[in-house]
Amino acid sequence: MNGGPLQGVRILELSYFLAGPAATSLMAQLGAEVIKVESIQRPDPWRMFQSLPVAPPDIRYGSSAYDLANTDKLCVGINISKPKGAEVARRLAAKVDIVSENFTPGVVDRLGLGYEDIRKVKPDIIYVSSSSCGNTGPLRDYVGYAPIFASMSGASHCTGYEDGPPSFFLGGVDQWSAYVATFGMMAALIHHQSTGEGQFIQHASVEAIALYFGDQYLDYILNNRIANRKGNRHGSCAPHNCYRCAGEDKWVTIAVMNEREWLSLCRVMEKPELANDSRFSTSTDRWTNQKELDAIITEWTKDKDYYEATEILQGAGVAAAPSLDPEGLFKDPHVKQRGMFVQIDHPATVGINEKKDWVFAPPWRLSETPGSVKRHAPILCEHTDRIFEEIVGMPKKEIQSLREEGILS
Amino acid sequence: MGKKALSGVKVVEYANNIGAPYCSKLMADMGAEVIKIEKPVVGDEARRRGPFLGDVPHPEKSVIFCYVNSNKLSVTLDIEKPEGREIFKRLAGEADILIKEGLPEEFERLGLGYRDLKEINPRLIMASFTPYGESGPYRNYKAYPLNLSHVCGIGNQYPLPSPDLSREPTKLGGNCQEYHPGVMAITAILAALFWQRKTNKGQYIEMSLQDMQLCFAKTENAVYAVYGKTMTRMSENLQKFPLAVVPCKDGYVNTMILQDVEWGRFVELMGSPEWSKEEWTKSIMTRIPHMPMVNSHIVDWMKNQTKAEIVDKAQKARCPVGPVNTAKDIVESEQFHSRGFFAEVQHPVMGKFKFPGRPFLCSETPCSYESPAPVLGQDNDMIYRERLGYGDADLARLKEKRII
Question: What predicted TM-score, i.e. pTM, was given to this entire model?
Fold first, then answer.
């Protein structure tokens, strides 16, 4: 019980890696009960994923990355590759509101756990099926990882320097795709609440990531223009960039969007002459001569701490903020005061944290039903007995014999 | 119009640009009635933001405005004027959800704070968007999308991989990071709606753009807290694999060979060159020091082939290789078309065109596009006359006073 608005909603998760689990993790933060299916035979490989080349974690407890996508979930061990395993999984599915899966297209149907199979045991089920390119279309069988699907959606092409290659993307881009599936579940739940009707939602990573670039597609459709890489630059305003500060890889972002901010900037940099410089008199002039302008601003920022530069500029009404790396973010006074990093107890040591791990607070603050992150991701197959006894109502003896057969773990 | 997931849900929006309006757009596309309140004459700031259809600035021709406001109604209203505030209260009084941007005191000053509105409508869900949230040392800081792109931890990691740290980090391409908060916020708002329907109670939701954006990179953003080491855009961890955006004859492809089985298939695809038979190729650990050499062979192998040739071959061999697509590639993509990602729409000023962005396929309640985006104030008559019961004389007076 975490006090979230989705108290009483139950989700069965048949998904590995990040895209599927991250989608239901938001639902867990909002109070839904999320039951994750793994097994001793086939644990979620994401338990072993690490963002840095460091010693592998104990698979039972999982890595930091696993925790971040699976806090507050329950884990049940079912060998769904066996027909009997699929049968008990269906018995459990009959007791839930939502099933979420992200296997390769066709796999759940083959296992007898597809939408049609679950609908037979739970006619009003909401079933969300996620895949890379979708269950249909010429590319439905494409293999790859999130960064590849991001580049297929146009993310790489427009990210990077004007004079450089397209950027690669980090694996976390899976979260972009995941959170689209989450609001799909939520909308279906609202529809179910009004009508009692379930439904089948098909979600594709390439399409979900594409949502974030829709204006660019529309620009091509309407203007025949292909947007290219342009670093931090704005289409018509300058200065608009990251400027070097004191220290290694420390930068402050400065964005000036109007005349008043421009004059303030000239004033705080103690360069009033710039306001009368013909190279920079209008917004168009500043944009045309932005490289020169960037060099002048860098002269002012380069010896300052990025917080010092931020404060001076904010004091003058100029939008500025540091460019934070993971260390900067963790130590940032605002992020700290907002309590976005949350330390939780953990059965193992995660990274440098003895019996602890760091996760994030919910990104929204709901006044009446706040929700929270309370507990580490489940230990592998931790809740099998509890779930089959309490939710499915299976006798202890049956659980025991299924375990001996290798169906439950 | 078929069944819609959010039909009957009433939303009022008072916001600009992308983040908050994108959130209510997603609701409108799923059937909610979204009344967008805009300032008289000027409207949403996105109406003045380029690019425009034909590159001529025009309030009804902004590409971004068009993408972010589909299926909404538009009314104009000046809430700085007392009569305007009263109308705002009546609209919020009938709504399930109010989406607005700005710090609470800006609305409290006008008598439109959460407490004021809750008195009229106890079921109201009020989602309040601000750059840094409503507490903390930066609560009053000014922020544009560029600042938020970097202060949320994402911008600093790009472009990737960077050879060194001599150049500035960059935000991600296009306006993608501005959409993050919209996508994040809708889940919480719908969850609050779910609870409202069970309990008949509303609530206030604080939406910090920074908090919401940083959660789009949790895996990376937690690295220092967990390992005591930071991560840079040089991305040392990625250098273990043949993994890069590689130039080819007509563009770039993205190659990501992580597992041993993929390595085996990939070198076979390259014609099993002599070096691929050497002892060091047997395991990932022994391959690492050879990666610069391996990558140069990949570059040589790809440079005379087209994107389509490489990707087609690689995917047939089940190797994780994909094209680096441009907007044109996607708009012309058979995959996207065959699944109905683009809809045909008709706009009163911009005409008829293909419109992107249905988020997923729903068996019972598909998204559809009745209108791409509203013309400024197009629904004044319908809302003020029919809904709120103002007569001709009232409307003329409100117009004259520039309230609508």
Answer: 0.97
